[in-house]
Amino acid sequence: MPDSGNNHFSLPADALLYAFLCFCWGTTWLAIKISLVAIPPILGVALRFSLAASIMVAVAVWRRQKFPHTLADHGRLMLVGGMTFSLGYILVYFGEQYISSGLTSVLFATFPLFVSLFAHFLIPGERINRYKIGGVLIGICGVVVLFYRDIQRPDQSTLGIALVVTSALIAALSNVYSKRVLQRMSLIAFNTLALVYGCALTWMFWLLMGGNFQPGPALTGSLLATAYLSVFGTVLPFLGLFWLLTRMDTTRLSMITLITPVLALILGWLIMDERISVTIFVAATLILAGVVLVLRGSRRAYVRS
Question: CB within 10 Å: which end of the chain, N or C, has fewer?
């Protein structure tokens, strides 16, 4: 595997992959909303990751991957799968039932701050510093400005907000822990088993909750959105994410969650003819300033280590 201490983009591959991740995850919030029209949250997560796990198993067989044999490794993979591909997404799906997709992306933008805190304690060489803290906070302020009207809507649900923020915390912990686990096993094997374990746990949750489902008239659209989430919101971007985790600072990589809301608005302007206001330019400036500070903090951290 590449050295995890590598802290720069190896152009053009790393930069293109980073942009691809931004595109994929910039469209997932809306796709989740569409999938929830006819499919309940836990079932939606289970279906999404069942298809994703099936694809990954096929890839693993095709590549003749060697899977770990120790109980300790499988325990770690079950933990990552449960956090990343089960509980974290279940919370997002439930939360997005009560709040808008835009507000969900804003709340999930707390992810980089949690990553910085966990990385400080769990990953040598990624100590938190004033640049990282300042950059993440400024970036989050930019995203809040971006969706200020959503946050001010009177029908926001405290439960939905709490669920999404909790999911961001779980995702950050799993993200940092994954970097430690990745050093000792195949990338494809890691993703495949984590997906399988996460999917199995989700189906268990679904059955424990009664397993009832009444298909509605919008089922086709919801199933298509779920299929999109499986391929472009799970398999392809997570392979890219875990590969990049071995090549750069986790805090820098986590800044994707601040870029994707901006991308969502740009796509809306290009495809849906939505107007870009002065507020968007102000928010984009704040987000980019935050990215610059985090990148500077990442370089300084590795110099000191």
Answer: C
DSSP letters for 168-228: HHHHHHHHHHHHHHHTTS-HHHHHHHHHHHHHHHHHHHHHHTT------TTHHHHHHHHHH
Reported as a single tens digit per residue, the pLDDT across 229-276 is 999 998 888 778 767 877 776 666 767 777 787 776 676 566 556 466
User: Environment class of residue 9 by beta-carbon count within 10 Å: exposed (0-12), middle (13-18) or buried (19+)?
Assistant: middle
Q: Could you tell me the pLDDT band of residue 91, with boundaries at 50, 70 and 90?
A: very high
* Contacting residues for 117 by C-beta, under 8 A, at least 6 apart: 128, 172
d(CA 137, CA 133): 6
**Residue indicated by tokens 């709040």:** 99
Mention every residue, 6+ apart, whose C-beta is less than 8 A from residue 199: 46, 49, 50, 52, 53, 81, 85, 86
Report residue 199's pLDDT band, with 50, 70 and 90 as the boundaries.
very high
Residues 6+ away with beta carbon under 8 Å from 91 = 163, 164, 166, 167, 170
Burial of 251 (0-12, 13-18, 19+ CB in 10 A): buried
Rg for the chain, CA atoms, rounded = 19
What is the Cα–Cα distance from 35 to 3, expressed in whole angstroms?
38
Q: 138 vs 255, which has greater pLDDT?
A: 138
Q: Give residues with Cβ within 8 angstroms of 55, minimum separation 6.
A: 230, 231, 235
Residue whose entry in the numeric block shows the structure tokens 């926001």: 156
